[in-house]
Amino acid sequence: MRPTQAPYPAGRPRRLRRTEPLRALVRETHLTPGDLIWPLFVRDGTRVREEVPSMPGVVRRSVDGIVEAAEEARDLGIPAICLFPYTDPALKTEGCEEAWNPDNLANRAIRAVKAAVPEVAVMTDIALDPYNALGHDGIVRDGVIVNDETVDALVKMALAQAEAGADILGPSDMMDGRIGAMRRALEAAGHTDVAILSYAAKYASAFYGPFRDAVGASGALKGDKKTYQMDPANSDEAIRLIERDLAEGADMVMIKPGLAYLDICRRVKDAFGAPTYAYQVSGEYAMLKAAAANGWVDGAAVMMESLMAFKRSGCDGILTYFAPDAARRLRAG
Ligand code: PBG
Hints:
Layout (H helix, E strand, L loop, with lengths): L19 H6 L10 E7 L6 E3 L7 E3 L1 H14 L3 E6 L19 H12 L4 E3 L16 E2 L2 E2 L1 H18 L3 E2 L8 H11 L6 E8 L6 H6 L21 H13 L3 E5 L5 H11 L3 E5 L1 H12 L5 H14 L4 E4 L2 H10 L1
Parallel strand pairs: 1-3, 1-4, 1-12, 4-5, 8-9, 9-10, 10-11, 11-12
Antiparallel strand pairs: 2-3, 6-7
Bound molecules: ligand PBG.
């Protein structure tokens, strides 16, 4: 039902846009630091800080720097960080065994953050690509990404991350049946309180390019990910996948990428009312940064406007490389 609107001139919608206090009173959507999840790239070493060329302002940090970033998140009111490892190429194999090594880089970073900054939630990434000599999110046999064998590997990875103290597991692999398999294994192992934020509607997108540079996966990857990630043309399929992952035991769901898929965010929120997140991915970040660096757009303004768009489309929160900058602006008022 639509609210009654007086016709012009009795109705003049500009009355409520006249001043900032009036605009604040009728604002429908709000963005706070509490809506943000900050993705961070981890690498080996100590006191290492390495720029990612295709993502200006984003760095790979050694574990000590990740702990400092977690402290920064806490101080800025950002509730969660999400860790992505840059794995030494020498540790990448076709069997991806490093993925479930309890002492791999990601698991060491989880432990360090939970020991030093327990008040910040740690989210992880579950997929084999950082550990795979062939660059895919799943195990490759004769050129095919095999589903069920990959799910077995992902379950081992999930258990190792839960054991290390992760609060939220983020399966980003797009295999079938992985949420149910992980949930059963977590329950059986006594990890009853570990949350799963499923990358449920993840599209085979060209917007992930800079991320693959950041985690060192670009060189390894042969071909594309279209046999497991979604076709950008599809919308009903996203609804089916989200419904399935919730039914299998996901606590929260994600749509990825973000800005080009806000229609999916709205449909998902309306259909399920579940905690819904979008990932403003590396290519989106890189585009806004590049345009701002050229002076073609106001960088801070487009950052805040793009993040508000996610909230308006029904998202409860956003994974974004802008998290600390946006939180600082929000706190400054
Ligand atoms: C890997 C993964 C990707 C991203 C998050 N996890 C890349 C991919 O699927 O190739 C992309 C994030 C980004 O672009 O910012 N499973």
